[in-house]
Amino acid sequence: MTSPTDAPGESRDDREAPSASELVGAAIGGAARRAGIDPAEEATTGDVVWKAMGGVRGMLESILPSLVFVIVYTLWPEPLVLSLGLSVGMAAVFTLVRLVQKSPPAAALGGLIAAGAAAALALFTGQGRDNFVIGLVANGVYGTAFLVSALVGWSLIGLAAGFLLGDGTAWREDRRKRRVFLWLAIAWAALFYARLAVQLPLYLANETTLLGTLKLLMGLPLFAPLVAVTWLAVRALYPASRT
């Protein structure tokens, strides 16, 4: 039985449901667009990187909670609740400011939730280093997702670019695009695995201060250049999107 919105002679089952690749591409592409990374729009590389980092506010939201934790924990490791509380409090302030200014709170709210969960785990175990467990796990998950997507020929970068530029999955039929998207996905996987390779030994050695410091140094300073490279590579593959 068809509904009033169905086309004449077409049942709901006759219409093709979105494929898994389309759903993944839409999800990743939508996230990229919200972050200001849309190859279909005219923008300089610097503008794209700046938007991806969230501007001044985004950088502060990303850096300050962890920086506060590292500084306070280094000076006063006990009580642990002091450094954790100030870190979560900083994230809460950013979220509150966004709510008061009626700006999109998603980024700050996500940071608050992550900071709160990490702090709860550290308080539960009584180990300051456990404030970084969620970040370590996230790097492992993201790195694996990008690497697997590259190895099976369904690069997450390609899926996102295909969605944003209306190319769908047609890029998989183009050897040049497929190769570029393969290496871009591997580059992103390498970034996440590099973080894990450096930070996990420090976690196991209970070097909390050094772990927190390197987490900051391997955050935006490595993220920004890779965003720029990705943007330039995708724009080179789709020069027609500039007109």
UniProtKB/TrEMBL annotation:
Origin: domain of life: Bacteria
Q: Which UniProt keywords apply?
A: Membrane, Transmembrane, Transmembrane helix
Organism, scientific name: Microbacterium marinilacus
Which residue spans traverse the membrane? 58-76, 82-100, 107-125, 145-168, 180-204, 216-238
Q: Where is this region: Disordered?
A: 1-20
The leader peptide range reads: none
Extract the Pfam families matched here: DUF3159
What is this protein identified as?
A: DUF3159 domain-containing protein
